[in-house]
Write a structure and sequence with these properties.
transport, Amino acid transporter transmembrane domain-containing protein, membrane, globular, 0% strand, 76% helix, AA_transpt_TM, mainly alpha, disordered N terminus
Length: 477
C-alpha cells in the first residue's frame, strides 16, 4: 500500500514536469522523506490500541514532499558562476571582432558616429536588463528561446531560434575570416605544401590547422568552465588595445589624421559593424542561469557594457587618428609589419577567434542537450554534442574560406540578425510579458527602440548586401 501511494504520487510528479529530466539528487531527497513516512506509518500500525491515521499523514506528507522536492530542485538547478566569472563571460562574449572594426567604422562614419556607438552600448545594456527581468518572471525559462515561448508561444520560440542559429552561424564565419586574414600576415612569405591541400593557399591551410586546434573547446559545456576561455579572450583584446597605443607612442606613427565629422551615406553599413560589436545577448540567459546570485545580473550587464563601450570608443578614435582613410577593416592589418607590437597584436588577433568558438556555440549546445539529449548519460551527451559542433565548425570553415569579405559579412550579421536579437526582440518580449504592469513612458521608450532598431536593421542589411555583391562581382571579373 505504501509503495502504491508513493508510486502514484511520483508518477503524477513526473507528468507535471512535462518529461523534464529529474536530477538524481531530487530522487534521493524525495526517497529520504518517504522513508520517514513509512517509518511513522509502521509505528502507527504496530500500535493496535490507537486508530491509525496514515491516510491523513499521507496527505500532509505529499504536500511536504512536493515542497521539499521543489526546494531541492531549485538548489540543484542553481548556477555556480560567481559575479566575477559572470562579468568575464559577458565581456568575453562581447569583446572581440568588434574592436578590430571600430576604427574602420569610426573613420568611415565620422567622429559623430561615435555617439551612435555609445548609444548602442547603453541600449544593449538596457535590453540585457530586460532579458534578465523576463527570466526572473518565469523561473522555468532557461534560454533566449524560452523567453520567446513565454511571450508568444511556439511561434515566438521558432522565430527566436531561427535568428539565434543564423547569428551563431554568421558570427562564426566572421571569426574564421578574421583568423584567416591575420594568419596570412603572420606567416607572410611562408609556403606550405600538402598532397591533400594542393588547391589551398598557405594561409588557408594554416586556418584549417587553427580551427582543428580549437575544435576540442566545443566539447566544453559548463559556462564556469568556459570562463577561462573568456578570460583568455579578454586578455587578447586588451593586448590588441595596448599594442595599438604603443604603436602611437613608440612606433613612429603620427596620430595626426583628421577624422571626418560625418559621412551620412556610410552610416547604414557601419551601424551593422557597431551592432555586431555588442551582439552577445543569445548567451546572456545562460550566463543569468549559471549565476549563483541571478539578482546581480543587471549589475553584471552594467559593468560589462561600460567596460566594452569605453574600450571600443577609445580604440576607435586611436585607430582612426593613426591610420586615417587607409585604416583596414581589421586594425591589426594596418599596423606597421616591422614593429614587434604588430607581431603581438597579430598573434592576439589569431588567438581571439579560437577563444570564441566555445562561447558562441554554447547556446546551441545547451538547447541541443535540453531538448534531445536529456535522457542520455553525461559521457554520451558530450560525445554527441562535440561531434555535431565539430561538423558545423568544419562547414563554417569551408564557407569562410570561400567568402573572404570580413567587413561586409560582419556588417550584414549585425544588421540582418544582430539588431533583432540585441534590441528588437528584448523590447517586444518585455512588452508582451509585462503588458499589464508596464507604464506608458516605458512603453513609448520600447516602441521607439523597436522603430529605430528596425530602421537601422533594414537600411544596414540593404547597404551591406549591396557592398558584398559588388565586391564579389568585382573579384570574379
Amino acid at each position: 500500500m505504501n509503495t502504491n501511494i508513493w508510486t502514484a504520487f511520483w508518477t503524477s510528479k513526473k507528468s507535471d514536469r512535462s518529461k523534464e529530466h529529474v536530477p538524481t539528487e531530487l530522487l534521493t531527497h524525495g526517497a529520504n522523506v518517504v522513508v520517514k513516512w513509512v517509518d511513522s506509518c509502521e509505528t502507527c500500525l504496530e500500535d493496535g490500541n490507537k486508530p491509525c491515521k496514515c491516510g491523513i499523514d499521507n496527505e500532509k506528507l505529499q504536500l511536504e514532499v512536493k515542497n521539499e522536492v521543489a526546494e531541492a530542485e531549485v538548489h540543484a538547478l542553481r548556477g555556480n558562476s560567481s559575479f566575477l566569472q559572470s562579468v568575464m563571460n559577458m565581456i568575453g562574449m562581447l569583446i572581440g571582432l568588434g574592436q578590430l572594426s571600430t576604427p574602420y567604422a569610426l573613420e568611415n562614419g565620422g567622429w559623430v558616429s561615435a555617439f551612435l556607438l555609445v548609444a548602442l552600448g547603453f541600449t544593449c545594456a538596457y535590453t540585457s536588463h530586460l532579458l534578465g527581468k523576463c527570466l526572473a518572471n518565469n523561473p522555468k525559462a532557461r534560454n533566449y528561446t524560452d523567453i520567446g515561448y513565454h511571450a508568444f508561444g511556439s511561434r515566438g520560440q521558432a522565430i527566436a531560434t531561427a535568428f539565434i542559429y543564423l547569428e551563431i552561424f554568421m558570427a562564426l564565419v566572421s571569426y574564421t575570416i578574421s583568423l584567416h586574414d591575420n594568419l596570412n600576415i603572420v606567416f607572410l612569405g611562408t609556403h606550405l605544401q600538402f598532397p591533400w591541400a594542393r588547391h589551398l593557399s598557405t594561409s588557408q591551410v594554416l586556418t584549417v590547422f587553427a580551427v582543428l586546434v580549437a575544435l576540442p573547446s566545443l566539447w566544453l559545456r559548463d559556462l564556469s568552465s568556459i570562463s577561462f576561455l573568456s578570460t583568455g579572450g579578454i586578455i587578447m583584446s586588451l593586448m590588441i588595445f595596448v599594442t595599438v597605443a604603443c604603436t602611437a607612442i613608440f612606433g613612429g606613427v603620427a596620430a595626426n589624421h583628421a577624422i571626418p565629422a560625418l559621412q551620412l551615406q556610410n552610416i547604414p553599413h557601419i551601424s551593422g559593424l557597431y551592432m555586431f560589436s555588442f551582439a552577445g545577448h543569445i548567451v546572456f540567459p545562460d550566463i543569468h542561469r549559471a549565476m549563483k546570485d541571478p539578482s546581480k545580473f543587471t549589475k553584471v550587464s552594467i559593468v560589462s557594457f561600460t567596460f566594452v563601450t569605453l574600450l571600443y570608443t577609445s580604440l576607435g578614435f586611436m585607430g582612426a587618428k593613426l591610420f586615417g582613410p587607409g585604416v583596414n577593416s581589421q586594425i591589426t592589418l594596418s599596423m606597421p609589419r616591422s614593429l614587434v607590437f604588430t607581431k603581438i597584436a597579430l598573434w592576439a588577433t589569431v588567438l581571439t577567434p579560437m577563444t570564441k568558438y566555445a562561447l558562441e556555440f554554447a547556446p546551441f549546445a545547451i538547447q541541443l542537450e535540453h531538448r534531445f539529449l536529456y535522457s542520455m548519460k553525461s559521457q554520451t551527451k558530450m560525445i554527441v554534442r562535440g561531434t555535431i559542433g565539430s561538423i558545423l565548425l568544419l562547414i563554417i570553415l569551408v564557407l569562410a574560406l570561400s567568402v573572404p569579405y570580413f567587413e561586409y559579412v560582419l556588417g550584414l550579421t549585425g544588421s540582418l540578425v544582430g539588431v533583432a536579437i540585441i534590441i528588437i526582440f528584448p523590447a517586444v518580449f518585455y512588452i508582451k510579458i509585462f503588458w499589464n504592469q508596464i507604464s506608458k513612458p516605458i512603453l513609448v521608450l520600447h516602441v521607439v527602440l523597436i522603430a529605430l532598431g528596425s530602421v537601422l536593421g533594414v537600411s544596414g542589411t540593404i547597404s551591406s548586401l549591396k557592398l558584398l555583391v559588388e565586391n564579389f562581382k568585382g573579384i570574379h571579373h
